[in-house]
Each structure stands twice: as C-alpha cells, then as structure tokens.
Specification:
The chain is an alpha/beta fold. The chain has two domains: 137 residues, Aspartate Aminotransferase, domain 1, CATH 3.90.1150.10; 255 residues, Type I PLP-dependent aspartate aminotransferase-like (Major domain) (Aspartate Aminotransferase, domain 2), CATH 3.40.640.10. 37% of the residues lie in helices and 16% in strands. Helix 2 packs antiparallel against helix 9 and helix 11 crosses helix 13. The structure holds 4'-deoxy-4'-aminopyridoxal-5'-phosphate. The site of 4'-deoxy-4'-aminopyridoxal-5'-phosphate has 13 residues, from helix 4.
Length: 398
C-alpha cells in the first residue's frame, strides 16, 4: 500500500498534488480514528471528574503525553501541551523572559518565522532587553560564523529555527549549544519544520526548549508542544493562571502545581492532544531513514527541474546536505500569488507569499516566494505536475 493511501483526503482526490505540508500536513486515518474514538466513546473533561468517562478521558490525554515523550526520548513531565509553536514560544517569552533584566540580550536570526521574532521584540520592549540577530548567508542558512561576534556575556537566550520554513536549511545545533554554554545562555529551538520528519532525541540536542506544532506533523490543528528541560520548567513561573495549574488556591494566594500542568491552565485541547499522541505512534511505526532519503530524492528532482526553468531563482541551499524538503523559488517578473494560482489550476497546492518571514524576504530583496514542501506522501508525479504548471506560469507571467 502506498503511504498516500493512508491519508483519506489524498486518497479521495487523486488529481491533487499537495505540496503545502509546511503550512499544514494532511492527516492519516490512524490519527482520525483515534480522535473519533475519543469523541464517540471517551469524551469528558480531564483531571476533574471521577466518573468512568472522566477517568477514560484523563487516561487518554495523559497517555498521549507518554506517546509524545517517547517520540522525543524525553520525560513526560517535560512535555507541556500548547496550542502550537507560536503559543509555546510565547510561553517561554513570558515565563522564562520575566526572569530577565534590562541589558540582558536575546539572540535570534534573520531567517526566523515571525513567531520566533515578534514575542522577543515584545519581551525586549517590556523588560528593556537587547535583541540581536545572526545574519543569513547567501545560501539561506543562519550564518554561524558570526556566533562569536553576536553571542556575548550578556546573552541569556538563543532562539533559532531548527529548519527554515523558507529555505529548508537545517541549523547545526551542536555549534549553537556550544556557543550558548560558553556564556551560560539557554537555547530555544523552533522545531515546527523539523518534527514532521521523524522522531528526535530532543534532550540529546543539549538545548533547553523545543517547540513544535501538531498540524504540521499529521495531527489536528490547535495542538502543539513545548518541551522544556526539567530544571528550566521547574524554575519558571506560570504564564496563564486558572484551573488545573494549581495545587491550592485561597483568596489571598495560589500555590502552583509542578510542571507540566503548571503551564496548562484551563481545559486543554483534549482531542487534539490525543490526535498528536496518535500521530507520534503512527510516525513511530515508519522507517524515517528511508522516508527522509526519499523526500530528499524528490527535493533533488525539484531543484534539478527548477534549475532548467529560465528566470527561476531558488532561495535556499542547492545541495541536499543539512537541509529538508522545503524549496522556495522566485520567478522573475511574476508575483508568487499568481504563480500559486496557476499551479492550482494544475492541481498543485503550493504556498505563495512571505511565509511569515518578512525579514528574510528583505534580506533577499523579494516580496515573496513560491514554496513547495515535501512530505512522506509525495511522489514523482507531484514534482512533475509542479514543473508543468510552472512552465505555463512562466509563459503567461514572466
Ligand atoms: N515556526 C516555523 C518555522 C513555522 O514554519 C511555523 C508555521 N508556519 C511556525 C513557527 C508557527 O507555527 P504555528 O502557526 O503552528 O504556531
């Protein structure tokens, strides 16, 4: 059975060439079944009731936390459910960020998604911090040769994307961690574009925080995770206050629960968490060495095809080393929205625009790009359809 056949939406629409998984992936039947099972046989609130359904819902929710912890080779206490990468980064910007003082510095890079830029600018303005950015190389990578210049004794946190959502470049986290350790800074990784490509030993990376979203890794929307090293989470105050995150409340004061529930105020996205747990189990049953190899073979085919189209400029590494299947390109004289619209006529779903990375677009003097992202269910026919559609776009627009 083709992997694609496990995805009801793709199986039901054979003319669709879905190359927009970097925005949201499709969802396999195994995940849809897990969510449906919860909603039809176990639905109740969690951590509250003692009736049979409430206990089943709590067990399913906490079981999902175990599945995710296994996927990350982490402890369950280190898995905080959030609504996604954006919420996870904002949580750190508040809870960790409120421990910072005027003059402390945070380092990001010029290729970050807005969700790893704006929360730090807001924190900078709240607390009088300094925010600095590592530059981006011509190849579309974070320029780590500048670490020694940008990371200083004042640096308290380095926050970088593991894989760029525009160029597909994967950062060498070992170098970043070494640089952070040398000055006693923490490291936050935005893993939104990395997690869809297989299990990862997150504690083994040596970082302090790792954020990702379920909807990009075959799970429902509105669920994500902040992994935080135990000592870090234990030292952090809560971000949101409310039900579930407490040990004891009086009208005068509140004693907070330990992590992870300290950071999960209010009724969580229970079915989303169960869906994400199921996605981790589903992913855990696949051979990711083989899948990533196939994704990169398709990436190579796409890069080769793009190199043959006059007027196309690829924004990102042209080789296959230290990159994943995120491929952005600009067609001279054509707006990326128009390119995406013509591709859509060929059944090709690509993203066109600035990809929430305007500073990176400024760096390359572009308003936007067309982006194809390659997932395990993509096949040669998807790349062929994109290149045929692009040929028409070039004839009509360029
Ligand atoms: N970081 C990166 C690298 C992303 O690609 C995205 C999603 N486009 C995000 C952060 C934000 O993710 P979410 O919208 O799910 O919070």
């Amino acid at each position: 059975m083709r992997l694609k056949d496990q995805f009801p939406l793709l199986a039901g629409d054979p003319g669709l060439h879905y190359l927009d998984s970097g925005a949201s992936s499709q969802v396999p039947g195994a995940v849809l079944d897990a969510v449906s099972r919860f909603e039809t046989t176990q639905r109740a609130n969690v951590h509250r009731g003692v009736h049979r359904l409430a206990e089943a819902a709590t067990a399913a929710y906490e079981g999902a936390r175990d599945d995710i912890a296994r996927f990350l080779s982490a402890a369950r206490e280190e898995i905080v459910f959030t609504s996604g990468t954006t919420a996870a980064i904002n949580l750190v910007a508040h809870s960790f960020g409120d421990g910072l003082a005027a003059g402390d510095a945070i380092v990001i890079s010029g290729l970050e998604h807005h969700s790893n830029i704006v929360p730090w600018q807001m924190l900078r303005d709240r607390r009088g911090l300094v925010l600095e950015a590592l530059p981006v190389t011509e190849e579309g990578r974070i320029d780590l040769s500048q670490l020694d210049r940008v990371v200083t004794k004042r640096t308290r946190l380095i926050a970088l994307a593991h894989c760029s959502n525009v160029t597909g470049a994967v950062v060498d986290l070992g170098r970043v961690v070494a640089s952070a350790k040398a000055v006693g800074a923490a490291v936050l990784v935005d893993g939104a574009q990395r997690m869809p490509h297989g299990p990862l030993d997150v504690p083994g990376l040596g970082v302090d925080f790792y954020a990702f979203s379920g909807h990009k890794m075959y799970a429902p929307h509105g669920i994500g995770v902040l992994w935080g090293r135990r000592e870090r989470l234990e030292a952090m105050p809560p971000f949101l206050g409310g039900g579930d995150m407490i040990r004891r409340v009086t009208l005068e004061k509140t004693e907070y629960a330990p992590p992870p529930v300290r950071f999960e105020a209010g009724t969580p996205n229970v079915s989303g968490a169960i869906g994400l747990g199921a996605a981790c189990r589903w992913m855990g049953g696949l051979d990711w060495t083989e899948i990533v190899q196939e994704e990169l073979r398709l990436t190579g085919c796409l890069l080769d095809g793009l190199a043959r189209v006059p007027g196309v400029r690829v924004l990102g590494p042209l080789g296959l080393q230290q990159r994943l299947g995120v491929v952005s390109f600009a067609l001279a004289g054509a707006h990326p929205h128009d390119v995406s619209q013509i591709l859509d006529r060929h059944g090709v779903a690509c993203r066109g625009g600035h990809h929430c990375a305007q500073p990176l677009m400024d760096r390359f003097d572009l308003a936007g790009t067309t982006r194809a992202t390659i997932a395990p269910y993509n096949e040669d026919a998807d790349i062929d359809a994109l290149l045929v559609g692009l040929d028409e776009a070039r004839r009509l627009l360029a």
